[in-house]
Amino acid sequence: MKVIILGTGTSQGVPVIGCRCETCNSKNPKDKRTRTSAIINVNNSNILIDTSVDFRQQMLSNNLNDIDSVLYTHHHVDHIFGMDDLRQITQRFDKKIDIYGRKDTLDELRITFRYVFDKQLIRHNSVPIVKFHDKSNRKFRSGVTEIMPIEVHHGNIKIFGYRINDFAYITDASAIDEKELAKLKGLKVLVLNALRIRPHPTHFNLQQAIEISKSVNPEKTYLTHLTHDLIHDKINQTLPKGIELAYDGLEIDL
């Protein structure tokens, strides 16, 4: 099983347009953050988490060309607006891509990408050819791979993180109930959002993410969905053992 962290930035990305802060001016490539996403290769299948706004560039930058299924965390723009670029994959490989997520998430996708269901466009293969699977907070399978949803709070809405084997990915969370935290026990790797240093109403800040990591106690935690508050090398020097900032292109072998 291999994971590539495709993007680690917030909805604005880093650098932020017009900003001249230390992080946005940094020459360190680990401070260049496209919008948050990851891909998991497991059981000879490529499972994508979210089609970020930067999905096309992320695929090109990582020399990737195929996706078998997509797990959506929620429907916010930075996590879904790359979905149309699945079309290049369904055309090239003449296949359908399975789409999984909460019903409310996929209902929003059905509205935003309503043209995807146009029978004429489907017939001409000019839209992504996808199959939606509404999922509740129960284990399910994508092919032969078992996937466990992790229901978390993102401000006043509920969204999904996901666990596959000993790896879990949670973004945009602001709270996690105890029964959902229990699903994260025994992890080798946890990827968790840590928006910024200051508190935020709909995302964990850095200290809250550290506390969640300590309570779950995975072997390794990588922090993602990062603003320009967090400059990579300086923040990493302050983090507890076993916790690091993720960066675009980070590869994790499990």
Q: Note the beta-strand portion.
A: 25-35%
What is the count of DSSP helices, taking H or I runs of 4+ residues? Answer: 8
Determine the structural class based on helices, strands and strand pairing.
Answer: alpha/beta
CATH topology: Metallo-beta-lactamase, Chain A
- Which radius of gyration do the C-alpha atoms yield? 17 Å
Form type: globular
DSSP, total strands = 14
Q: Give the CATH architecture.
A: 4-Layer Sandwich
Please give the domain count: 1
Report how far apart the termini are: 5 Å
Query: What is the strand arrangement across the widest sheet?
Result: 6-5-4-3-2-1-14
Task: Please describe the biggest sheet, giving its number of strands, its sense, and whether it closes into a barrel.
Answer: 7 strands, mixed
Mean pLDDT: 98
What does this molecule look like?
This protein is 21% helix and 28% strand. The protein has 254 residues and is α/β, with parallel strands linked by helices. It has one domain (2-253): Ribonuclease Z/Hydroxyacylglutathione hydrolase-like (Metallo-beta-lactamase, Chain A), CATH 3.60.15.10. The strands form two sheets. Strands 6-5-4-3-2-1-14 form a seven-stranded mixed beta sheet. A seven-stranded mixed beta sheet has the order 7-8-9-10-11-12-13. The longest helix is centred in the last third of the chain and has 11 residues, at 206-216. It is globular, with a radius of gyration of 17 Å. It starts with a strand and ends with a strand.
